[in-house]
Structure prediction request, 241 residues.
Amino acid sequence: MSVFEAVAVPRLYRVIADQIASKIQQGEFPVGSRLPSERELAEQLQVSRASIREALIALELEGYVAVRVGTGVFVLSDQQRHLNQSSDVSQPAQVDNDFGPFGLLETRLLLEPESAELAAALATEEQLQAIQAAYESMEGSSTPAREDRAFHMAIAAACGNSALAATIAHVWELALHSPMFSRMERHFVDANVWEKAQLEHGRILDAIKSRDKVRARSAMHDHLVSILARLRVDFGNEGIG
Prediction:
């Protein structure tokens, strides 16, 4: 009897990254040159800019390019590539099994507005206090990412649906262990971003405490859309020239 091997279907960003890496290796993009803009790459490859963004982050993790926000994406030499990889031992050289950051955020966008709506309807006073405490702990914190997660987890815990809460927690765990997600946050998440997130959290908290289900869903939805928008800010590259 014939034995077949399982067929692995690579994620789209991986296909894009491999194609760009191949052109770099063939010298089509010389060392030190700037890659075409995300917009141009998306048009040439007929894919979304989010997929291009994920591919470029993957290439950065693998040492092919350096991302300079506000300037563009530049090709590194083999020596620079090995230096970058050895200086960032916390990140794996390959990210083929990693989930794309935008896919994770879009999954949260499907789940968390529902949990906020349910929390507005079902949260106990103790759960409301936990959400309030998580919100307050973020202000002035030296670890805002940890407090951000605590806020969202407190809302999920208050939704009254343990399966939904567990699913949201799992998606967060995937993001926390995603080198691509971490690298993208490193480029685009700063103190100003956390201030905006705190304001958005305040709107979510107010809606939940007011038992306004519609406003709670809307505030959470708007918050997550804003996160997506902040992570889609262009690297500042308008193409080779």
Observations:
- Residues 87 and 96 are 20 Å apart (CA to CA).
- Confidence is low (pLDDT under 50) at residues 89-97.
